[in-house]
Write a structure and sequence with these properties.
The structure holds 2 protein chains of 2 kinds. Chain A is α+β, with helices and mostly antiparallel strands. The longest helix of chain A has about 55 residues. Chain B has 2 domains: about 120 residues, Rossmann fold (3-Layer(aba) Sandwich); about 100 residues, Arc Repressor Mutant, subunit A (Orthogonal Bundle), CATH 1.10.10. Chain B is built from 8 helices and 12 strands. In chain B, helix 2 runs parallel beside helix 3, helix 6 crosses helix 7 and helix 6 crosses helix 8. The chains are: A alpha+beta, B alpha/beta. At the A-B interface, helix 6, helix 7, helix 8, helix 9 and strand 13 of A face helix 1, helix 5, helix 8 and strand 11 of B. Strand 13 of chain A pairs antiparallel with strand 11 of chain B, so a sheet runs across the interface.
Chain lengths: ~475, ~230
Amino acid sequence: MRSVRTRLTITLVALVAITAAVLGIGAYAFVDARIHDQVRDDAADQARFDLAVLAPGRWVPDPTEADLIRFTETFKARDVETIVVEGGADPFVSRTDLFGALETFSADFRARVAAGELAYEWTRIAGSPALVIGGRMAPVGPEIYFVHDTADVERTLEVLRIALAAGALGLVVVALLAARAVARGVLAPVEAAGRAAERIEAGDLSARVPVGSSDEFGAWAERFNRMAETLEHNISRLRESQAHNRRFVADVSHELRTPLTALVAEASILRDHLDALPPPSRRAGELLVADVGRLRSMVDELMEVSRFDAGAEQAALQSVDLGRLVEAVVAGRLPAARLELPERPLIVESDPRRVERILANLLDNANEHAPGSAVDVRLTSAGDVASLAVEDRGPGVDPERIGRIFERFFKADPSRHGGSSGLGLAIAAEHAALLGGRLTAANRAGGGLRIVLELPVTGSLPGGDPTAIGGADRGMRSNPPQEPVP
Amino acid sequence: MDATILLVEDDPSIREVTAIGLRNAGFTVETASDGREGLERFRAAPFDLVLLDVMLPRLDGLEVCREIRRTSTVPIVMLTARADTIDVVVGLEAGADDYVRKPFEVPELVARLRAALRRAGRRPDDAERLHLGALTIDVAGRTVERDGREIPLTRTEFDLLAELTRHAGQVLTRDVLLDRIWGYDYLGDSRLVDVAIQRLRAKVERDPSAPELILTVRGAGYKAAR
């Protein structure tokens, strides 16, 4: 944008400068030539008259010094100095500073005068510009050089030069200002559009370009605005429907919660009395209890997802002994799993409830997709990353679809209608991201799925350092400052 | 166990099935269907424990909790529909001793209520007197004094203070505190501890933002100053 403005300015100024220079120089050359011609013609007419009429009347043959002074006085009265050359004698000059001037005239000029022609030469005499007209008094009198001081003429021309140069400079300055104004005017809509586009890019869809003119820019601005309006309209509709969907999910799961609470409590009582039911209803009772459990975990997961969507989730960081936590979760969820823990306690700043949730979901996933198969849980640390791997020996996931495994409602086998909601891994991934970690999935070489949770170990502490005492309660803060451990 | 429980819950199904479950477990249960009725019943007769829904018509569960706390140290357990930090923390800050998330299974609820009752019914072994800074803790009388003036504490806050003071200078982890004060196994919600510590500090510290009596040990837990 800047370069366009600069280019426009330079072009315009250059154009004006060239025009001004050409016109100025042309005008000056013309005036200069005309004035010099005029001065020369006048002087030549005068000289012709003087040589033909005035001089012969005053000329005394073999003049003495006094005669010559008198002779030249005639011309001096008209501000014309003269140099008189007669025969081989020294030239007579009417003014002392004309001594030696004769030698400075060009040979051609002298020769033409000697031959009886009327000739002229522009020259400088004693530092001052002068026009010299030379001629021979008819028929074979002395050569007379009339010296006209042209300092006035030159001064006039100099004033003209200065005036023309100043005028040209003024024009260039005016052109510069005009060019900048024009450039700004022309580029203003472009810049406004640039700013509007920037704001739209930054997410402010209400940005518009001012429509200031009815020219091409105006039409273009209107089209830009129409485009922005359509964009804003469509995106706000999209957002609305998205927000509506989320609200709907949140509302539905919330509304489901009250009857679900009753159902869960009822099923838990029923479960304790299944034996007391007559056989035909006992099986139904068992199924009912199991299905209530399924319904509960689905609603729980929907609630969880809608909380993530609402941005309501915050990590409550505290120091967590990962090994101990993993041990406890595995013991509670999948006691058959093989457990590998590091020798030293691995303690991280994290949210234990979320770590537990992630691991529980990974174990449930393994249990569901590889029922009965061996499951390995391995906790390791390398550098500042703690890795928790859960491996099963099940069928794994189609390599083409494994990249989508953490998407919501992803099903490894679409034909299966299993008990899970298909949200477990997606939720686990959301929790991992909230903890500054991530989940990755890959098929094991020997068959089966391997999912790894990586957690940052920043702010890890040696187990229960009793010397580090902080006054503030850190447990409730979502983003505690990472202080160096002494 | 023949404790009497006041159950305040607005949804009839949940109220009924909860009452059945608690009665099956041997409790005597009285019910109320909104906050105001709950408060009236509480004032009319003594209860060993109050089980309180957070969202109640007419008078919010949190309000009921605060009202009860003004006159009583009876154990209060909240039923929260959401497990959000805000709901849980606000409930605990209103003076509840514990919370149970909805949906809940009856045995789980019963276990939590028993733990709360056990703590409330705990008899001090002797006429123990503890000192922490300028505080004098009378374990038998369950009172705390500073400069001859009594500081009112809830049962949970008192137990927490007494436990920390008994082990002054020694770090108690959140898990240990959960276990000893709330009667939970590992993996309970440590926010219970954090919120209770904050409330306790607000009452016993001269400047709660710069605690001198109950100190946070970073990465470990809490300890009372020796």
